[in-house]
Amino acid sequence: MDYVLTVLLPQLLHGLVFGAALGLLALGLTVIFGLLGVMNFAHGELYMLGAYAGIAVIGVAHSFWVALIAAPILVGLVAAVTEMTTLRPIYRREPLYGLILTFGLALVFREGARQIWGGDMRRVLPPFTGSTPLLGMTYPNYRLFLLAASSLILFALWLFFTRTRAGVVVRAAVQDAEMLDGLGVDVRRVFTLTFAASGALAALAGLLLAPIFTVYPQMGVEMILLAFIVVILGGMGSMGGSVVAAFIIGVAQSLFSLWMNPQRVAIAIFGIMIVVLIVRPRGLFGREGVLE
Amino acid sequence: MSVLGWRALLVFALLAALPLVPGMSRYYLLLAFDALLFGAIAMSLDLLMGYTGLVSFGHAAFYGLGAYATAILMERGVQSVWACVGFAVVVVGLYALVVSYFATARRGIYFALLTLIFAEVVYTFFRYTQTFGGSDGIQGLPDATVLPGLVIDTPTRKYYLVLAYLLIAYAICRVVVASHFGRVLVAIRENEDRARFLGYNVPRYKMGACMISALLTGVGGAIYPMRSAFATPDLMLWTESGEFIISVMIGGLGTLVGPIIGGAFFTILRDKVSSIVDWYFIVIGGVLIVIVLFMPRGLLGLRRIFSRRAAA
Amino acid sequence: MRRTTWLVVLAALTVTGGAMTAPALSQSKVVKIGDLGSKVGVFEGYGKYQTMFMQMAVEELNAKGGVLGHKIEMISEDDETKPAPAVRKAEKLILQDDVKLLVGAVSSGATMAVMDVTKKHKTIHWNAVSCAEFMRTTKFHKYYFSNQPDSRMQANGLAKYIVDKMGKKVYIFYTDYAMGQSDGRQFKTALEKIGGEIVGVAGAPLDTKDFSPWFGAINQANPDVLFLAFAGTDSLRLMTQLHSFGMTKKYKLAGIDCFLLQQDLPAIAEPMEGFVQLAHYSAYNPDKQMAAFNERFKKKFGVDGNIMAGAYDGVLFWAAAAEKAKTFDADKVEAALEGMCVDNTHIGRQCIRKEDHQVVMDMHLYQVKGGKNLPIARLEGKDTIGSPMVGKDPVEGFTWEIKKKN
To answer: Does residue B37 lie within any of the structural domains?
Structure first.
């Protein structure tokens, strides 16, 4: 019992915090995948740009909270422009081209950020400090806030997708864009807005995580592989699946690292992935047939 | 040799004459080695991507495993090129058998992801296994020998080694593409279900293509330590696989020759630009974007522009 | 159609061939040196400062007329922090640019791969920051020199201070790749030798995002001192997270010299308060020689210097040896370098030990106070350097297992 309280539960909490963060990142990725059939390699860079935009806004407005609103808007605009100028012309081509294109975009964004803000690491101070005694630890309040905020955002998105007309339109576009086009919806606008929103979500994740993970130009490239794994595990194009998978991966990583060396943890996670892909390739919640 | 045609032979002859160019520095021969090796691997990948329609995101594992096969033998005193390549074929072959068995049962993005994750497992294994040097890999390898007395020690000899490999790999790819087997692959790419209805055992054909591509890549990996004297886990990183794919796209999908040019172009561009500016990733990223947007057929697509002009 | 394919191939060949044979202009009276390191990526801070310190040495030498009447020209290359590009760039510097001295690389893996190139092509190779223990032992070759205190040197000096002044129970937390493993191993060996107790060991993968899953084990082991072997962005992230969990106040902190560069400290001053490390240089050391050196550096670049200053010495030693040998010939310069002493390095007079080509560096223990590395004790180079072990395996018989003390 003591073991559960002082070892397992704290570890579970670490995993949940990381999983929530990962969920924010993976959600945008999976929506874009469903919509465009493209694994957006530049998603990690939008996440990174969010953190830098946040630093820039904090520099001017001196408020983390203002930045939390402004940075996603700024990055959303960047994403919208990117979508209109580069992705839109290639929608009718094979998904492979989208992959290569976003790979190129990722390089340009990353290096662009390095040229603008320099390659040094930056720290973003959390808007509040202090900690709460919890499970035998002093747990940082900001991490608890992060868990709450991410969960809240994910819940809000769930409401959006299920309860609003706009959400239904996006979901319909994910399922079958051509059909939607036939119904007279301006699909191009849906695509652009969705891409912008997905970028804004990534940016939000970037800034929310900045006080914990620090900020530097390569921060996105290191997260993206993990986000991919989450998307696959959850079922590509499945939003709920991504969120569940993010929590699973976060908690699994955290718990495994109690008992195993880091390499075994990595191999265990990949092992799970291989089994999932072989036994149930559409992932935990993916729809059958569409993408197989 | 008839499979190659006189034009290909001419190009190979010109390539073979490269070390004879007056003023050719040893460094450029080594850079040419890297460029041609990268090109040859892109070409091997093209067999899968361009002809069979399967995008592998795990070719770095075949490449890296080949390199480790050589390094492991050389570290134990075996220096023969043939032994190393043979061992690489066995090791890569066994691994490719497993990967291609599971991966070719899936299509599209799932194939890409399965190959990627299998490759990550191999990467993680070598990255952390101290017997094989962990993150440092195996370093300080001796020169390889082709025959007793013929040591691959100078840049010129290394260059001819990779050229021989490229020639053989190219010939194999040409033969495969021109064969009945190759035509079935194209049929699968165009319409997998139709190929199945026609009575072809589609998974077996896909697996065959995957194996050929993997083995050619593995042999390419096997000769890399003969030039660099090391094998490290970085060779298996997923970004490396990404660069192979990029090379194929730059050169032109489904052309064999295109990816060779693409791989060489990518290697040289990166090497040259990074010596001049420190924002070379913007240049490389920009090239990729331009190619996707404006020349989807890659560098080889340029030929259409030229031929149209010639016709006009 | 097919003909045009081959036209494209031929055109490509001609262009590359043309680019390749562009004649290297042979300017008289110029000697080149190479600067190889991470200029882009998570270790770029180290690489950028290496370039700056080398540039400073080059300009000072050129102002005095260069070396053997030759003006020194420095060529910088990025190694992408990976062995394969590092080797190619090293070959480019040696075979194409004909550099007579190669300084680099930053990461241990890349440096060791480059050592094979400098060995093969007989080029003087100076390592100013990589600290894996294999370089002056199993990987050693006669053209290799270093003034970076490697893991073994740092561990020898630091372990004693920790046991004497900070506490006997130590937890080792390291980054699980070449550098961190090497530092962790050597530190464990050194600490156990002098009677300290290792209460726990853990490795986290490179680029770990969230270190908190490891914190439980650290707290359970309840050490006096937390020894940290990380570098670059990992260090910054780890300190931020340790601090938020209140662990920077709970434990005494010690670590390796390249944990964070001086430039990174102000941003993370509070978490880093009290952190002890062993290093050869700090911009805030009141030592006359160091202060004067930092003054010159600051005047030139507008920032404080850091431990990458070792790269400055590399150029200085090589130039002095070339003057002494009256040639740039690698074998003769190498012979001149063995046992050589130079008076005006960044920390004053220093000498190279003949056996393993290691500079016998006098170092200081530094403690971070208010974001500055301030010296707290001085250690003689001969007390930390350890016996020469060329060709011997420095990790023979080592195990990560913890010997339980009764």
So the answer is: yes
Query: Looking at the predicted structure, is the pLDDT value of residue C55 above 70?
Result: yes
Q: Subunits touching A (CB < 8 Å, at least 3 pairs)?
A: B, C
What pLDDT digit, counting tens, does each position of B234-245 carry? 999 888 998 999
Q: Domains plus CATH for chain C?
A: 30-149+289-361 (3.40.50.2300), 152-282+364-384 (3.40.50.2300)
Domain count, chain B: 1
Residue B171 lies in a domain: yes
Q: CA–CA separation, B170 vs B183, rounded Å? A: 17
| Closest among B302, B264, B309, B273 to B40, alpha carbons compared | B264
Q: Which residue has the tokens 């290639």?
A: A90
> Is 90 exceeded by the pLDDT of residue A201?
yes
Candidates C40, C44, C212, C272: best to mutate against A (most CBs of A within 10 A) is C212
pTM of the model: 0.89
Q: What pLDDT sits at residue B176?
A: 95
Sketch the domain layout of chain A as residue ranges: 2-279
- Chain A interface test: which of B55, B110, B270, B294 (most A C-beta within 10 Å): B110
- Alpha-carbon distance C360 to C350, whole Å? 7
Say what the pLDDT of residue A178 is. 75
pLDDT in tens, A111-165: 999 999 988 888 899 988 888 887 777 889 999 999 999 989 988 988 888 889 8
Whether chain B has a CB inside 8 Å of the CB on C113: the answer is: yes
pLDDT number for residue A229 = 84
Residue A109 backbone phi and psi in degrees, to 5: -60, -45
Residue numbers in A near C215 (CB within 8 A): 14, 137
> Taking CA B44 as the corner, what is the angle to CA B38 and CA B45, rounded to the nearest 5 degrees?
90
Q: Look at the domain A2-279 and name its fold.
A: ABC transporter involved in vitamin B12 uptake, BtuC (1.10.3470)
pLDDT over threshold 70, residue B1: no
Q: What's the gap in Å between the CA of C86 and the closest CA on chain A?
A: 20
ipTM for this prediction: 0.87
Task: Name residue, tokens 């109690």.
Answer: A258
| Closest chain A residue to B120, measured at CA | A270
Split at pLDDT 50, 70, 90, the class of C273 is very high
Chain A nearest-CA distance from C214, in A, is: 7
Instruction: Look at residues B91, B170, B89, B173 and name the one whose alpha carbon lies nearest to residue B126.
Output: B91
* Minimum CA–CA partner of C216 in chain A: A7
State the Cα–Cα distance between residues C333 and C330, nearest whole angstrom.
Answer: 5
As given in the structure block, the two tokens for residue B71 are 């390094």
Are the beta carbons of B135 and C7 separated by less than 8 Å? Answer: no
Percent pLDDT > 70 in chain C is 92
Range with the poorest average pLDDT among A37-46, C19-28, C167-176 = C19-28
Range of the domain at B200: 5-237
Among candidates B49, B55, B293 on the partner chain, residue whose Cβ is nearest the Cβ of A86: B293
Hey, are the CB atoms on A291 and B109 less than 8 Å from each other? yes
Judged by a CB distance cut-off of 8 A, whether residue C15 touches chain B is no
pLDDT > 80? residue A36: no
Interface test with A, best of C174, C209, C220, C272 (most A CBs within 10 A): C209
Asked if pLDDT for residue B298 goes beyond 90, the answer is no
Name the closest residue on chain B to residue C10, using Cα atoms: B11
Q: How far is CA C382 from CA A281, B10, C73, C157, C288, in A?
A: 62, 64, 34, 10, 22
Looking at this protein, which amino acid is placed at residue C38? S
